[in-house]
Amino acid sequence: MSTTDMTRADVAAFIEREFSRPQSNKVLHTHPSPMYWRANDGKTRERWEKRAHLAKQRRFKDNLYLGIPFCIPTDPAHCGFCLFPTQDYRGKSQISDYLDYLEREADLYGDMLSGDTLASLYVGGGTPNLLRDGEYARLMTIVRKLYGDVAPGIEKTLEGIPQLFTRDKVDAIRSAGFTRVSMGVQQLSDRLIRYSGRKQTRQQVMDALAYFNEAQLACNVDLIYGWPEQTVDDMLFDLDELARSGVRHITHYQLNIAGRSDFSKTQRAQLPSLEETIEMYRESVRFLSARGFRQATVYDWERIAPDGDGRFEFAGAERYEYETHLRRLLSMDGSDLVTQHMIGIGYAAISMPPSSWSPDDGLNWLQMNHRSLEAYHAAIDAGQFPVDRQFVQALPDMKLAWLFQEMQTMNIDLGAYEMAFGCDAIGEFEPIWEELGARGWIEIENDTIRFVDIGAFHIPMLQALMSQTRLRQLRDGVDLGGGTRRVVPIHAEI
Ligand SMILES: C[S@@+](CC[C@H](N)C(=O)[O-])C[C@H]1O[C@@H](n2cnc3c(N)ncnc32)[C@H](O)[C@@H]1O
Ligand code: SF4
């Protein structure tokens, strides 16, 4: 079955229709979106057990995600823009109780992950730096439950907000064994950050960077462009300040606007226009490239040349393993096939363990834990995996998931696609490539499709375009094997 049944005219019509709508940058770059996943079918344990059996013959590398869902309440709620599932922070005991549940969820896995190799750890949220000093070491206890002793060289990242990264806390994070932090800054300007209701200042951001540097912690900074009232100059001012500080990794997201956020409901008139947002994207590419950064994905920028005013060194900061591994799902180590897996533990955590390269095994599944804290607790109290929903990928889903990961890097490796699926990605999506080529959004050379200029900016829209045919099949209940039955999309924006 073809992966798209669109004609070139359909492709052009789709682009004309979607071009000026705010594009939805899915945080989860896989296929299909969680809207299409199905209610827990009770087979979670069976899948993990079969996978553990396969792990004895295969090379599974795990990138472990631990979710800490709590956030300091803001006015407007959810920082005005955030679409992640989170819970209001109500006090210290809430966190220590939650860590008990996290540990008990890890216990449910028994030794099912012990045949895998832990490749990286990411503690995200929510706001993991709400934890108290002694609690960071507890996170490592949970990791050891799953994988035994953790090799010291492994990248271990913890996410947080600037005002909670005090010097003592940064020391506690470092002492617990973390090697990297990811700080959500969004805006450096004290005027613009106010839209989010966050009590955060530019000074707190710069202080936190100094503490990371003292503690020799690598650091990523998240920024958002397309923010209410933000101009190109505002954006460049922040990028310049951070580039001068010596930061080695900047994640520069386009603001994702959707249904229930305050920005979507009350700030639309303040948002930059599409033309201004595209200009911001182009200017950021020009600026960061000129300042020694390499664009690793549509929004990830890695420093490759020294710059800055020499204040901060951020020792060892040139590794970004969690993100890099998950973009390369499949690789060869000599004659061994190595697959990268995302294993998610905690409230709303997602797992993506591509355990068999054969769609018939039903072991290419995606799963998401409960997004209600009560349901998460209740499942664990009942000794069950706290999985809310899952999706078993059929072959077209595996192909699209692969292509989506590649597209994040703005390059599709046609040879690797052929090696993985035994077919030609050009032929399978020919009308799409023809139309994008004619618009100057892609170039095809040396076995690679490269997304260029605003072709890269539009990648979220182009991912939606590529999955059109398959999503219609899923809505219509076309059976392709791999467990595909008619599904009713749930309303979840992840
Ligand atoms: C899990 S979130 C938040 C981490 C941390 N709690 C914070 O607020 O900074 C990780 C990152 O996703 C990005 N993000 C969240 N909502 C977004 C949206 N609506 N549009 C674009 N980026 C978003 C932000 O840059 C944020 O730092
Ligand atoms: S942006 Fe960060 S702090 Fe704000 S609600 Fe989202 S996860 Fe929580």
The number of domains is 2
- The computed structural class is alpha/beta
Return Rg in Å. 22 Å
Number of strands: 19
Classify the beta-strand content into a percent band.
Answer: 15-25%
**Helix proportion:** 25-40%
Bound ligands: S-adenosylmethionine, iron/sulfur cluster
CATH topology value of the largest domain: pyruvate-formate lyase- activating enzyme
Describe the strand arrangement of the main beta sheet, using strand numbers: 10-11-9-8-7-6-5-2-13-12
Task: Determine the number of helices (DSSP H or I, runs of at least 4 residues).
Answer: 18
CATH architecture call of the largest domain: Alpha-Beta Horseshoe
Which parts are unreliable, with pLDDT below 50 for 5 consecutive residues or more?
Answer: 481-494
* Overall 3D shape: globular
Q: What is the distance, rounded to the nearest whole angstrom, between the alpha carbons of the first and last residues?
A: 28 Å
Secondary structure: elements and pairs:
Elements: H1 8-18, E1 38-39, H2 44-55, E2 59-68, E3 70-71, E4 87-88, H3 92-108, E5 117-125, H4 135-147, E6 155-160, H5 167-175, E7 180-186, H6 190-193, H7 202-214, E8 218-225, H8 232-245, E9 249-254, H9 262-266, H10 274-290, E10 293-295, E11 300-303, H11 321-327, E12 330-333, E13 336-345, E14 350-351, E15 365-369, H12 373-381, E16 387-392, H13 395-408, E17 411-413, H14 414-421, H15 425-428, H16 430-438, E18 442-445, E19 448-451, H17 454-457, H18 459-476
Parallel strand pairs: 2-5, 2-13, 3-4, 5-6, 6-7, 7-8, 8-9
Antiparallel strand pairs: 1-16, 9-11, 10-11, 12-13, 14-15, 15-16, 17-19, 18-19
Helix pairs in contact: 1-16, 3-4, 8-10, 13-18
Bound molecules: S-adenosylmethionine and iron/sulfur cluster.
S-adenosylmethionine is lined by residues 81-84, 124-125, 127, 159, 161, 184, 186, 222, 224, 253, 255-256.
